Amino acid sequence: MSEQPSTQLWLGGMRVEFVKWTQSGLIYTRVGSRETLANLTRSTIIRLLKEGMLVIEGYRPAWASTDDEVQEE
Predict the structure, then answer these.
(1) Sheet harboring 14-22: ordered strands across?
(2) Of 13 and 70, the one with more pLDDT
(3) 33 lies in a domain?
(4) Number of domains, the chain
(5) pTM value?
């Protein structure tokens, strides 16, 4: 099983723990919690990125970029 490169997330200014990318979006949890997982769909991710409410550092799929960003491959 190949591991995905590192991804870090901030949602609404709060650091959240990235779990994994899925075909339909991403899964995350609060830092330090593995009991409650949440999912963001692709359309929600794009909207939150454009609004500045979601910050993604590190790896992200090409679809998870806004028009204003330059995606590094």
Answers:
(1) 37-41, 25-30, 14-22, 7-11, 54-58
(2) 13
(3) yes
(4) 1
(5) 0.79
